[in-house]
Amino acid sequence: MRVTLLAVLTVALLATSLPGQTTEPPAATNQLLHKIADSFGMLRTTDEEDMIATLRFWATGTMTVEGRPCRLANYAASVNYHVPGARIDYACADASGKAGPRRIEVVAGMFAWNEDSPGGRATPAAASADERLLNLWTLPHAAVKAAVAAGARTVVSTEGGATVLTLPVPSMDASMRLTLNSKPIAASGSQDLVKTALPAGTIIERVETRRGNVVTETTYADFGDWNGADYYSDVVFPRRITQKQGGVTILDLTVTKTNTYNPYVVMPVPQNIRAAGATALNR
Predict the structure, then answer these.
(1) For residues 145 and 40, what is the distance between their CA atoms, to the nearest angstrom?
(2) 252 vs 250: CA distance, rounded Å
(3) What is the C-alpha to C-alpha distance for residues 275 and 283, in angstroms, rounded to an integer?
(4) pLDDT digits over 211-265, tens only?
(5) Is residue 221 a part of any domain in this protein?
(6) Dihedral (CA of 231, 237, 240, 243) sign
(7) Which backbone phi and psi does 145 adopt, to 5 degrees?
(8) What's the domain range around 207?
């Protein structure tokens, strides 16, 4: 079953920004990755295959936008791990709490652009592609997939009593460090999960990425099934997401709802964005 997990995740990621890595990690690492995926609720079917392909979540909170603080009037994220791609749809609130201009930021593989509406008029944002894609890989389920895809390049160590996984992201000359929980976590949300603590060493609580001189630390807390009482899936996701750069908080989200039943999520690359990308590559 663990071999199946490795095969399924690796095949799914061969065409992504994480280059294909067919060298199987050591058995102990593979077993650990299996346990992490299992705790997150990623494994389904009798073969325990990773069935999480897409995800949507909604949140409130704050973030930094173009160097300025933004109190969110709304925030929705749609992720497709197989593209890989993401669409972040949000608006900042003004002093009265009214939503300001809608902002939609998209990444799909090597392409990045902004939209005036989902799937609408697209404006190139090529310079943001790596940053947006790296942010996608820091999401807990994505980080598991990235660690599996890195194969033998994923290194496991122990630091301060916690298990740490270190892996490269060669396509953007970056690296990731995943820190696992050192103590059991009581999950919230689903009644099934409330009765069962998530074991120590099986949940990613912190992800640190390094790309050039930029170090980003993302922490996760309050794990549970946030799909809603009539839509539980037993897929675990953090309610709190906090991201810092240089000790400064640039993102602080409280997740209000998730859809982990593989919702329809696509981000086809608009022709003008594809053409702009091809032009830049040929220069």
Answers:
(1) 12
(2) 7
(3) 13
(4) 999 999 999 999 999 998 888 899 999 999 999 999 999 999 999 999 999 999 9
(5) yes
(6) negative
(7) -60, -40
(8) 2-270
